[in-house]
Specification:
The chain has 202 residues and is mainly beta. The chain has one domain. The chain contains three helices and eleven strands; from the N terminus they run E-E-E-E-E-H-E-E-E-E-E-H-H-E.
């Protein structure tokens, strides 16, 4: 007996049987975070726009990023450790290229991205003035907007809730750790809609 394949049109109006308890799987669209960019470049110009990125798995939002210039997240780690994460965009006016802005001291990774480059410092980063060092990371990704005008995407994180020198804390921001790889993905893949505008002084 010869079996002939059904033409696609022959399936019109035919109900496909699905086993009881099963449902047609619909691919889940990854969540997207969008943060505002707004910062002065010179006395007459400023950077405005947005930066969007796929929200990494396990990053719990702590604010409504679309209404702010910083997106804040919490990432649970081993034991009592948690990582606080902030993503923002800094307006930068400089003649240095992207690689020069990132620098060569990027022990947690570096690379190129559309319109620029990226790099990550860590696992120890500076605290505020007079504050002790922190266990964490600081990633930057300068993106060229126009000549000598840049939007510098920043991902900053520190580990809290546990001893900053413990294996659990340092493991969260070790080279190739999940959090570090996620930060690198944000820096390398974030989508930018940035422009330079004149400041109306009237």
């Amino acid at each position: 007996m010869r079996v002939r394949p059904l033409a696609l049109g022959a399936l019109a109006g035919v109900a496909l049987l699905v086993p009881a308890g099963a449902s047609a799987a619909t691919p889940k669209t990854p969540a997207t975070t969008t943060v505002k960019a707004r910062g002065g470049l010179t006395s007459e110009t400023m950077l405005v726009g947005t930066v969007s990125f796929t929200t990494p798995k396990g990053w719990t939002a702590k604010n409504d990023a679309a209404r702010h210039t910083t997106a804040a997240f919490r990432v649970d780690g081993p034991g009592a450790c948690q990582a606080r994460v902030w993503v923002s965009v800094r307006a930068v006016a400089t003649s240095r290229n992207a690689e020069q802005q990132v620098g060569t001291a990027t022990p947690l990774g570096h690379g190129t991205r559309p319109g620029g480059a990226w790099g990550i410092l860590g696992p120890t980063i500076a605290g505020g003035e007079g504050e002790p060092l922190r266990t964490g990371l600081l990633g930057t990704a300068p993106v060229r907007v126009q000549a000598n005008r840049w939007g510098q995407i920043r991902v900053e994180s520190d580990v809290v809730g546990c001893d900053r020198e413990s294996a659990e804390a340092t493991g969260m921001v070790a080279k190739d750790a999940t959090l570090v790889r996620q930060a690198a993905h944000v820096l390398a893949k974030a989508r930018t809609r940035l422009r330079v505008v004149r400041v109306d002084r009237d």
